[in-house]
UniProtKB/TrEMBL annotation:
Alphabetized GO MF terms: calcium channel activity
Main location: membrane
Originating organism: Branchiostoma belcheri
Domain of life of the organism encoding this protein: Eukaryota
Alphabetized Gene3D superfamilies for the sequence: 2.60.220.50, PLAT/LH2 domain (2.60.60.20)
Residues in PLAT domain copies: 255-373
Protein name in UniProt: Polycystic kidney disease protein 1-like 2
PANTHER family: LOCATION OF VULVA DEFECTIVE 1 (PTHR10877:SF194), POLYCYSTIN FAMILY MEMBER (PTHR10877)
Residue spans crossing the bilayer: 211-230, 419-438, 458-482
PROSITE patterns per record: PLAT
Keywords from the UniProt entry: Membrane, Transmembrane, Transmembrane helix
Length: 515
């Protein structure tokens, strides 16, 4: 059927007057389907409606749908009514057929979805034939005929369609062309997710789904309890994130330096000892400055911000001398200093002093005094520093679940907001699970992949990817909305980002990058 011209040139044959007909077998379900779910149906009298949506962003629209109805009780008489785009009635429908009392399954094909990809199937059961139970199960599968295009190296469906003579066991394809010297044809078969009709799901009888109702109420109750404690923690975080002026600042000092002091995450890293420091610059020294006498200021795993003012410019900062008097009680006498970041608000410069060591008489080298040079660009860009800093940030701020209980989270994305995002992810995951629940029953003997002790099927991989595409986009948008919102004005506290933006051109984003 492929014509070769003189010179051994190949001519593609397209728009043939008669379609090329070929059939491909398809795997079908073993008919051990789950009972009809109440989440995707609507019942009106003796008529049960199923919403069948042939379109979904997770997979291409099929060319045809294979629908199988299985009576669950022998002797059940069913009448099927099909209508595009709206609920059918016994008088208004596009297609109807009957399944009379044999108890065997009945299948039919919808070869053309161009009229409307959304259709409603009404199943009418003759109550006089049997009593009790939903009366039937339903299976919906999508069929598509494709060919392999050698030029574009992709599967295409132009010129191919599913024949009305197709069955649930065999897909018959009609194609009006041959391309190149070889054309590969295939019939795709994929399982449609369970349809959730939100127009009717809220009118369902809650008594028929007590487990789902109780689970949702339990999660909402846990959220309210968690939100109460998260709100309290947010108020404490607001106090901790405020800027503390040094006690020996003078009112006539005109130059300002912002110090961000990070305490380590080791057990017992915080201290109540009196801490003092001295900054050495290329032009001047800061003199000895104390952080103050307040307790629980330098706590484990947290950052505190202090404002230092001077009457003269220190120049480029070179060295930080820092120590404490070891006067804390019990385990609060020692201190693990991670790093100190100093922001020069006049010159828009940032200096980082890396310590990562104990200032304690009973740990490390036994000294409570450290002399720390300003870190070079090479040190700040080293793999060890970047790996530790990024890992810490990912756990304390990036990980949506762990950040609800971690310390030092972002002020513009509070714990309550993060907890609400967790609830959204949880409920979206439940919806995704409902969409793909027991869809593997529609695949006979799915191919399994085994990697060491792990075994999974291609259908399971497909469902996991589709579930992720269902859950992730909407929740990523919600998280980004919270992150991009502006902070609520606070008349009680001054925060580092606000102070920086008021006194210099250094942006809040650069403050976070300096950390």
């Amino acid at each position: 059927m492929v014509k070769r011209m003189p010179g051994n040139h190949i001519v593609s044959l397209t728009s043939l007057p008669d379609d090329i007909v070929f059939g491909l077998p398809q795997p079908i379900t073993a008919l051990s389907l789950a009972p009809t779910s109440q989440d995707d149906i609507r019942q009106s009298g003796d008529m049960v409606y199923h919403l069948i949506n042939g379109t979904n962003s997770s997979y291409p629209q099929p060319q045809a749908l294979a629908i199988t109805v299985i009576p669950t009780i022998p002797g059940t008489n069913l009448t099927l009514y099909l209508r595009y785009g709206d609920f059918p009635t016994r008088d208004v429908y596009n297609m109807t057929t009957s399944v009379v009392g044999s108890g065997s399954d009945f299948s039919f094909l919808l070869p053309d979805l161009n009229e409307s990809p959304v259709l409603y199937l009404g199943v009418y059961r003759d109550r006089s034939s049997t009593q009790g139970g939903p009366g039937h199960n339903l299976s919906v599968r999508g069929l598509t005929c494709d060919f392999w295009n050698e030029r574009s190296h992709e599967w295409r469906e132009e010129g191919c369609k599913v024949s009305p003579s197709s069955t649930t066991t065999k897909t018959v394809c009609l194609c009006n062309h041959l391309v190149e010297d070889r054309t590969d044809f295939a019939a795709s078969f994929f399982t449609l997710p369970n349809t959730i009709d939100f127009a009717t799901v809220f009118s369902a009888d809650l008594g028929e789904n007590p487990a789902v109702f109780a689970t949702v109420l339990a999660f909402l109750g846990l959220f309210l309890v968690g939100a109460f404690f998260a709100r309290r923690a947010d108020k404490l975080d607001a106090i901790k994130a405020a800027v503390f002026p040094l006690p020996n600042n003078k009112p006539y000092d005109r130059l300002q330096y912002l110090l961000k002091i990070y305490t380590g995450h080791h057990v017992g890293s915080g201290t109540d000892s009196k801490v003092a420091f001295l900054l050495t610059g290329s032009l001047n020294d800061s003199d000895v400055r104390a952080l103050g006498n307040e307790k629980n200021v330098l706590t484990t795993g947290e950052c505190r911000t202090f404002l230092m003012t001077t009457s003269y410019d220190l120049g480029h900062l070179q060295t930080l001398h820092i120590w404490h008097d070891n006067g804390g009680k019990g385990t609060r006498d020692s201190w693990y200093l991670e790093k100190v970041v100093v922001l020069d608000l006049q010159n828009d410069l940032s200096y980082t002093f890396l310590c990562d060591d104990w200032l304690a008489v009973d740990r490390s080298d036994g000294l409570t005094y450290r002399t720390i040079p300003s870190a070079s660009e090479t040190e700040l860009m080293s793999f060890g520093h970047l790996f530790f800093s990024q890992t810490k940030r990912n756990f304390t701020d990036g990980h949506i679940w762990m950040s609800t209980v971690s310390k030092g989270i972002s002020r513009n994305f509070t714990r309550v907001q993060r907890l609400a995002c967790c609830l959204s992810i949880l409920f979206c995951t439940m919806i995704a699970n409902a969409m793909w629940y027991q869809t593997e029953d529609n695949v006979e003997s799915p191919a399994a992949l085994t990697i060491g002790p792990i075994s999974f099927t291609l259908h399971q991989m497909f469902v996991s990817v589709m579930s992720s595409l269902t859950v992730l986009p909407v929740n990523l948008i919600i998280v980004q909305i919270f992150r991009k919102t502006r902070n609520k004005p606070d008349d009680k506290h001054v925060f580092a980002e606000d102070l920086v933006q008021q006194t210099s051109g250094l942006s809040g984003q650069r403050v976070r990058e300096a950390q």
